[in-house]
Amino acid sequence: xxxxxxxxxxxxxxxxxxxxxxxxxxxxxxxxxxxxxxxxxxxxxxxxxxxxxxxxxxxxxxxxxxxxxxxxxxxxxxxxxxxxxxxxxxxxxxxxxxxxxxxxxxxxxxxxxxxxxxxxxxxxxxxxxxxx
Length: 132
Known about the structure:
Layout: E1 4-5, E2 10-11, E3 34-36, E4 41-44, E5 50-52, H1 62-70, H2 85-89, H3 98-101, E6 114-115, E7 124-125
Antiparallel strand pairs: 1-2, 3-4, 4-5, 6-7
């Protein structure tokens, strides 16, 4: 968000000490930042978490997803796990979605398999399992 507001309308950006200073538009926060490790993994530079760069296009139930992660050897690592909801949330990009960008709601460094839903609609993206 980049607009600033008073009690009833959009205003110019207030400076420190002025009324209405400190709105969300003043806060930049930790902007998403990723590194492609070149080995099938992506590192989230904000959280330090490492992610599999591309899904394998296979649909799994929760139990098989858990087993897949625990048995994965990728990028020289064997300590993979199914992410918890907070970890998975850290890579969501709310500026992207199938209806707006024809892509999954994730940074384009990641590769997500699209599919055609049972109604014939292309460009659909799956759901992802997490730990509680």
